[in-house]
Design brief:
Elements (H helix, E strand, L loop, with lengths): L12 H13 L21 E5 L2 E4 L4 E4 L14 H13 L8 H13 L5 E5 L2 H16 L3 E5 L17 H4 L10 H4 L2 E4 L4 H11 L3 E7 L14 H11 L3 E6 L10 H6 L9 E4 L10 E5 L1 H4 L18 H12 L3 H24 L5 E5 L2 E5 L8 H5 L3 H13 L2 E2 L16 H24 L3
Bound molecules: pyridoxal-5'-phosphate.
Length: 448
């Protein structure tokens, strides 16, 4: 069951034509599965341009963008200062395969913002960041087991795909084919927000566990923040067993606050996470990501130490210029504006879904938020899955037909940007009554 409504307004002929071309040469017609609209049905929109809070598709239709490239476009599309930084960098060359100054400046900016991070290594994707952090933790501890939480997505790293969120949740896949069972056996998957389960797993196998990796505040099963004291508990338990704590801030980093989720929740009395991973916002829409943390752990990386890690395009001069220009514009005023936009949108959502009688709960982490079509707070992946997915698909298509682009899955965060001005917010608010009615109808007519 995809949870998709049975009929959609077919009003995207240019996107449909592009999809048919794409299907001939690319599996599923897309280069990342959630883009295919399989969870909501209909034709994925092929976008041709972005401007501030808006995207325009191949059929010339404009949408208020509440996906923001899945997080990176925190300033909106085509911010002039970032454009200038990118074109200046590109004018000087595309890739040198040598160190260059922007890499240093971007690393300095990350280290300045996130207090426990003493050193970083730049990579090109969040997947590379978490994969490398896991290898480093294994090299540091000489152990091999990794603990993760169901519903947390850390990229498509073999050992981290077990019960992952994001696209894996969207397609209801328990895991991925192609991951050797020996590899899967190296991963212990626990329910999020359940410290008793963490205590029990460490009591049983603590001396074999290299690291526990967690999304700092999960956004890949929808938004499910850690309960008060949960992160603190993870730090206490991992430290007691000599395992590293890896805080995956690929999504939340520089998005929830100047210092990411750590800036909202930390510092922790039990101590800081040993390693952090970053991506999305720090690349400003270009492929740049990072992992970093304690200097004594990072010192194990090649060329200083025995843990190998490398990349032809790591620290690419154009990507680092975009990331640096973006971070420099991520000021307290920007975060205040993101919060205002999120306040307005979540209040509108709550009001209109309530008026239409649609069971719902809206959860937030800074300005990240999502709506679950169910009653009661969502604390873990099982609760996230116990929502009315067809109601989301109906809601999504109503919003899309009214010019609002939402994540094409019920298991994803919504993202806003500093470019979402009053006019963009008003357009979203105006679309909500119709979408709430569509969700109410789906509740009444389609089984969840
Ligand atoms: N970690 C988290 C928390 C993410 O949200 C993602 C991507 O959505 C990743 C890692 C993987 O990043 P990438 O898609 O850049 O490989």
């Amino acid at each position: 069951m995809t949870g998709a409504p049975t009929a959609y307004p077919f009003d995207a002929p240019a996107s449909q034509a592009l999809l048919e071309r794409a299907l001939a040469v690319t599996p599923g017609g897309v280069n990342s599965p959630v883009r295919a609209f399989r969870a909501v049905g209909g034709t994925p929109r092929f976008m041709v341009s972005g401007d501030g809070p808006y995207l325009t598709d191949a059929d010339g239709r404009e949408y208020v963008d509440l996906v923001c490239s899945w997080g990176p476009m925190i300033l909106g599309h085509g911010h002039p200062q970032v454009q200038r930084a990118v074109s200046d960098a590109a004018a000087r060359g595309f890739s040198f395969g040598t160190p260059s100054e922007n890499e240093v400046a971007l690393a300095e900016e990350i280290v300045r913002r996130v207090e426990p991070v003493e050193q970083v290594r730049l990579v090109s994707s969040g997947t590379e960041a978490t994969m490398s952090a896991i290898r480093l933790a294994r090299g540091y501890t000489g152990r091999s087991l990794v603990v993760k939480f169901a519903g947390c997505y850390h990229g498509h790293v073999d050992s981290l795909l077990a019960q992952a969120g994001s696209g894996v949740a969207t397609f209801a896949l328990p895991d991925s084919a192609g991951v050797p069972k020996e590899m899967a056996a190296e991963t212990i998957v626990l329910p999020f927000n359940d410290l008793d389960a963490v205590e029990a797993a460490f009591a049983e196998r603590g001396s074999e566990i290299a690291a526990l990796i967690t999304e700092a505040s999960p956004g890949n099963m929808g938004v499910v923040p850690p309960a008060p004291g949960f992160t603190e508990g993870l730090r206490r338990i991992t430290a007691a067993h000599g395992a590293l704590l890896i805080s995956d801030e690929v999504m939340t980093g520089f998005r929830c606050s100047e210092a990411g989720w750590f800036g909202l929740e930390g510092p922790y009395a039990a101590g800081a996470p040993d390693l952090f991973t970053f991506g999305k916002v720090m690349g400003g829409g270009f492929p740049a990501a990072a992992f970093g943390g304690r200097a004594d752990v990072m010192a194990l990386l090649a060329p200083l130490g025995p843990v190998y890690q490398a990349g032809t395009l790591s620290g690419n001069p154009v990507a680092t210029a975009a990331g640096l220009a973006t971070l420099q514009l991520c000021t307290p005023a920007l975060y205040a504006r993101l919060d205002e936009v999120a306040d307005a949108l979540t209040a509108g959502l709550d009001e209109h879904l309530g008026a239409a009688g649609v069971p719902h709960v809206i959860q937030r982490a800074g300005s990240m938020f999502s709506v679950f079509f169910r009653d009661g707070a969502v604390r873990d992946y099982d609760e996230a899955r116990a929502q009315h997915v067809p109601a989301y698909a109906a809601f999504f298509h109503s919003m899309l037909s009214q010019g609002v682009y939402l994540p094409p899955s019920a298991f994803e965060s919504w993202f806003v940007s500093g470019a979402h001005d009053g006019a963009a917010v008003d357009r979203v608010l105006a679309a909500l009554p119709g979408a709430a009615s569509a969700a109410a109808e789906a509740f009444a007519t389609i089984d969840s």
